[in-house]
């Protein structure tokens, strides 16, 4: 399923979920959007869904603290649940592939995706995106000056995630991908993975 033509013909293949995750400014949204466009697949992003649930526009700035405001535990849980529900609805309606994009910093949140996918017969793949600290700073500076940026990620969020992000070292359904390279190269690399061959 590495190209739009094969994505468009599901046949007997099970539906697939691809989840791009990582810390703030890790490149997950850039790559997730690019992969969804490459495959012409539905795409759901936690920043957008969270603000939608809060009654905000995507580019509205909400620099709330960790665990506060629209980043409360309750709204975070609702955001992940809504994204998963929409993805499963798309798969049930015949979409061969759906892309999810968020930090998924807790193993518990990743396991919820696994359990739901397994229950419905869908296949899944997590893509753990990462980059160096200097690149994180550069990306966050660009984001801060972009009035249309959707994410409210900031340096203090990144520092917090360094302490709390549950790394997926033992999760064998995760690919690790350094995002300090051209998007086109990353898309080509992902398209060549064995996940698409069955």
Q: What would you note in describing this structure?
A:
This protein has eight helices and five strands. With 198 residues, it is an alpha/beta fold. It has one domain: 3-Layer(aba) Sandwich (Rossmann fold), CATH 3.40.50.300. It is globular. The termini are close together. The relative contact order is 0.23.
Number of helices: 8
Structural category: alpha/beta
How would you sum up the major sheet? 5 strands, parallel
- Quickly name the level 1 CATH class: Alpha Beta
- Our Rg estimate from Cα atoms comes to 16 Å
Short description:
45% of the residues lie in helices and 14% in strands. The chain has 198 residues and is an alpha/beta fold.
Task: Spell out the blueprint of helices and strands.
Blueprint: H1 4-7, E1 16-21, H2 28-39, E2 43-45, H3 46-53, H4 73-92, E3 97-101, H5 107-120, E4 123-130, H6 133-144, H7 155-164, E5 174-178, H8 183-191
Parallel strand pairs: 1-3, 1-4, 2-3, 4-5
Helix pairs in contact: 2-8, 3-4
Name the features.
198 residues; alpha/beta; Rossmann fold; 5-stranded parallel β-sheet; 8 helices
